[in-house]
Amino acid sequence: xxxxxxxxxxxxxxxxxxxxxxxxxxAGATHLLVLGHGASTTMRHxxxxxxxEGLAEAGIATFxxxxxxxxxxxxxxxxxxxxxxxxxxxxxxxxxxPGLPVLAxxxxxxxxxxxxxxSESPIEGLAGLVFFSFPLHPAGKPGTDRADHLASVALxxxxxxGSRDDLAALDLLRPACRALxxxxxxxxxxxxxxxxxxxxxxxxxxxxxxxxxxxVVRGWANGLG
Length: 225
Description:
Order of helices and strands: EEEHEHHEHEEHEH
Distance between the termini: 29 Å
Radius of gyration: 16 Å
Largest sheet: 8 strands, mixed
Shape: globular
Strand order of the largest sheet: 1-2-4-3-5-6-7-8
Strand content: 15-25%
Structural class: alpha/beta
Number of helices: 6
Oligomer: single chain
Helix content: 25-40%
């Protein structure tokens, strides 16, 4: 069912100014997940909306936000501005929902910027990172260079990746996660692509893919202690 989102703004960086955010906090929420959007989308994109709605049904609050370039409709910001925005979003989210354990991540680019920020220095108050379709490599250019920085992330990490994701070949993602040891948990969503479109006829379960992700996030988060 749809959940009401409370809109607000926070300062991304002094140079880039304020950006918009959306907070969904269901009754009895157990955790708060800070969500960054994909590279060419915004916090209002249908995929991020579906992720947030599914998490709300599972009792997890979300704080979606725009990167400055998405807020202003301009060319993509440099990495430093994006990682600074991740930190500012996490701080703003903690202020809006005090008392909840905080997780952070996002869909594709948003998750990657979060992990890069966490690899550079700890993000205050985070209990773990959640990656929805971590973009391990560009489409058609398999590789693992984008995972190198994950070795410097000290937090537990959950990867939710579709079996048909053309930006994260499973024969590369699986060993990349294994290399991270107990810090990494990989959950494969059968027949899902990078945007979580599924093949209904061949998918081995009738469970909605967004409900499946929310269920997995809830169980993983509850196990963090």
